[in-house]
Amino acid sequence: MIEVDRVGRSFTVGRRRARKTVHAVQDLSFTVEAGEFVGYLGPNGAGKSTTIKMLTGILAPTSGRIQVAGLDPSRRRTALARKIGVVFGQRTTLWWDLPLKDSFELIRHLYKVDRVLFRRRLDELTGLLDLAGFMNTPVRQLSLGQRMRGDITAALLHSPAVLVLDEPTIGLDVVSKAAMREFLRRLNADHGTTVLLTTHDLGDIERLCRRVMLIDHGRLTFDGTLDDLRATVPEETSIEDVVARLYTGGSASP
Ligand SMILES: Nc1ncnc2c1ncn2[C@@H]1O[C@H](COP(=O)(O)OP(=O)(O)OP(=O)(O)O)[C@@H](O)[C@H]1O
After folding, report:
1. What topology does it adopt in the membrane (predicted)?
2. Nearest CA to 198 among 94, 55, 73?
3. Is 234 in the pocket of ligand 1 (CB under 6 A)?
4. How crowded is residue 196: how many other Cβ atoms within 10 Å of its Cβ?
5. What is the pLDDT of residues 141-186, one digit of tens each?
6. Separation between Cα atoms, residue 155 and residue 167, nearest integer Å
7. What's the pLDDT score for residue 236?
């Protein structure tokens, strides 16, 4: 479902003599099969957002090849938009001044979703994410947790095969976080949606992801199961400690 083959992405920053090249992602290769739920971890500045922007076609790679749902994201961005859902926890894709339900209606038009399918999907998501109480509220008046549920709904209205999430639980309280995790778990289990999740919250990873990939300085430093990751250190070590050790340059092998 997702194929990343020796992908690199660099940026040129600064001017004249201060000009330099930042290698945000380097020689990155991985494959995600249909139905997998994969956690994508890395310290600040490691290259996670750059990867996600390339997977969704916002950025083109400077080298290598990417295929998502059979399409080259940067060349087929419009076609890909019908097959992929994307949620950036730090910003909204909803219309700030419109009631939530109007944002959803606009998305239906943009994605040309059949009216009956849309109604069915929206009813399902309204129930699962408990949206009924604020469907008529303008997005700018929603709490962060409500807005996030709205954003997740917006990303799923066209029933995409792949969902890419960039920190979807950031800023959520413990109850909202648990509800969001349960929703994502069910989405993956019941609909078989392939999910790639970026987060700094290791609770998300522990509860949702069997497989974890770690990126550091633009390079993949670990790709395996959560159990493999845990097995790299003594049993009593928490997952936070395991990951912190890797972030600060420790080896992934015992
Ligand atoms: N548009 C850009 N122009 C220049 N440099 C960039 C650009 N986007 C990202 N970078 C650089 O690329 C590197 C990787 O950034 P990226 O945003 O992908 O990291 P990240 O893993 O998502 O970090 P965080 O966890 O802090 O969000 C950083 O050094 C960043 O400064």
Report:
1. Peripheral membrane protein
2. 55
3. no
4. 26
5. 999 889 989 999 999 998 899 999 998 888 888 888 888 889 899 9
6. 14
7. 65
Cα dihedral sign for 151, 176, 116, 85?
Answer: positive
- Between 235 and 67, name the one with better pLDDT: 67
- Cβ–ligand 1 contact at 44 (below 6 Å): yes
Parse the chain into domains and list their residue ranges.
37-60+76-247
Q: Whose CA is nearest to atom 31 of ligand 1?
A: 45
pLDDT higher than 70, residue 31: yes
The CATH number corresponding to 37-60+76-247 among 3.90.950.20, 3.40.50.300, 3.30.70.920, 3.30.420.40 equals 3.40.50.300
Cα(108)–Cα(157) distance, integer angstroms:
7
Q: Which of 19, 21, 22 has most ligand 1 atoms within 8 Å of CB, for mutation?
A: 22
Ligand 1 site, residue 59, Cβ cutoff 6 A: no
Tokens 């928490």: give the residue.
238
